[in-house]
Specification:
Blueprint lengths: L1 E3 L2 E3 L2 H7 L6 E5 L4 E4 H17 L7 E5 L4 H12 L3 E5 L6 H11 L3 E4 L8 H9 L21 E4 L9 E3 H6 L3 H5 L12 E6 L9 E5 H15 L6 E4 L6 H8 L1 H5 L2 E4 L6 H11 L3 E4 L1 H14 L8 E5 L5 H10 L5 E8 L4 E6 L19
Parallel strand pairs: 3-13, 5-6, 5-7, 7-8, 8-9, 12-13, 12-14, 14-15, 15-16
Antiparallel strand pairs: 1-2, 3-4, 10-11, 16-17
Helix pairs in contact: 2-3, 4-5, 8-9, 12-13
């Protein structure tokens, strides 16, 4: 791992290992009551990575991870990177079985890790059975489907529901041991430009397409935001956006290992109640949200007379931020110094455009310095 011209060179597991002996808190999943120190993250990453390779998956296999802001969703992505598996992140709330089929076939995924969806219990398992009835009588890791021919491994994170043909996530953890961890791929030999992730574009203007992303892109996507905003180890950021969006994962999933900044995830689907509690409990200095969500947060805060004085900076991503929303922010966030507005771009796994001076329009449309390499 090295730094040259303010850019980062290395791999995701390399940066996790760099912090791996620290007992400082890296991430908190408040609703689940799970706190990860840097040491915990390294151990969990290694254990799950070894487990994934023990069930017949091979380096460079493609893994689709469907979930939201939960502790093991976060670990799954890092574990795939550690095992030299190529991961992709998606929401578990597919509109129908055809949408899931499109993702699995288009991405040629060999495995899928299914976290609970909002819609119903065992939602993804039901969609998979609809697509491939063979799953109900197949052997674990040996699914043979005409509809989704590349898919062989189904891993369910809903531990209380076990089915023929599917592994549970705890079962994968249980397949790991010290010997298997010691035999994990040697990431120190990998090139920083090695492919680590695939991500679907939003599909708003045309059908969703897959974008290949390297370790270098994910690391520097985060690094660009760290430098633009000035994150340090004294900061604590509260996340109210979904981790399954790759720019959000690149930013918040990796910021502990790049800036030693602590990240708080209030709940899998951050509602105002949990958000307020987490911000107060951990004295968060930064809040990541979007204009729509923040509008709801402010309305609830005003009704309940909630004040959050620890917040110093608010980062709003996505749609345009109405001026009246900015004016209302200081009523509940009285110590806010900056309100930043940015736009995420899957193709660079980051937030290439970010502004925080509402009176200065010269920088609108201008990328951050780290994206002006040419």
């Amino acid at each position: 791992m090295s730094s040259k011209c303010d850019l980062l060179f290395g791999t995701l597991p390399e940066f996790v290992y760099k912090c791996g002996e620290s007992d400082r808190i890296a991430a908190v999943f408040d609703y689940e009551k799970i706190t990860f120190t840097f040491t915990d993250v390294k151990k969990e990453m290694d254990t799950l990575a070894a487990g994934l390779l023990s069930i017949g998956l091979r380096p460079q296999d493609r893994i689709l991870i469907c979930g939201s802001n939960t502790a093991h969703f976060f670990i799954c992505a890092l574990a795939c990177a550690r095992a030299n598996l190529i991961f992709s992140l998606m929401s578990p709330n597919f509109a129908n079985a055809e949408q899931l089929k499109y993702a699995l076939v288009k991405g040629e995924f060999r495995a899928i890790i299914c976290f609970p969806a909002n819609r119903e219990v065992e939602f993804l398992n039901n969609l998979l059975n609809e697509l491939s009835p063979e799953l109900m009588y197949s052997v674990k890791g040996r699914l043979c489907s005409k509809v989704i021919p590349k898919l062989t491994h189904i891993i369910m994170a809903e531990e209380e529901h076990k089915h023929a043909g599917t592994f549970t996530l705890s079962e994968i953890y249980g397949r790991s041991n010290r010997e298997k961890v010691d035999k994990l791929p040697d990431f120190t030999t990998w090139d920083t430009h090695k492919l680590v992730a695939l991500q679907f574009t939003s599909g708003i203007s045309t059908s969703a397409k897959l974008v290949g992303l390297t370790h270098y892109q994910l690391l520097n996507g985060c690094n660009a935001i760290v430098k633009a905003i000035g994150f340090t180890d004294s900061n604590c950021i509260c996340c109210a956006l979904p981790l399954f969006k790759m720019p959000i994962f690149s930013f918040l999933g990796l910021i502990p290992f790049i800036a030693n900044t602590q990240v708080i995830y209030p709940s899998p689907s951050p509602l105002p109640k949990f958000l307020f509690e987490s911000i107060k409990k951990f004295q968060c200095t930064h809040l990541l949200s979007n204009a729509v969500a923040l509008g709801l947060i402010l309305r609830v805060a005003q009704i309940q007379n909630v004040h959050l004085p620890s917040i110093e900076n608010i980062i709003l991503l996505g749609e345009r931020v109405p001026s009246d929303l900015i004016k209302n922010i200081t009523k509940q966030f009285e110590n806010v110094q900056k309100v930043m507005n940015g736009y995420i771009l899957t193709e660079v796994a980051s937030i290439p455009i970010l502004t925080w001076d509402t009176a200065n329009i010269k920088g609108v449309g201008k990328p951050l310095n780290e994206f002006e390499f040419c």
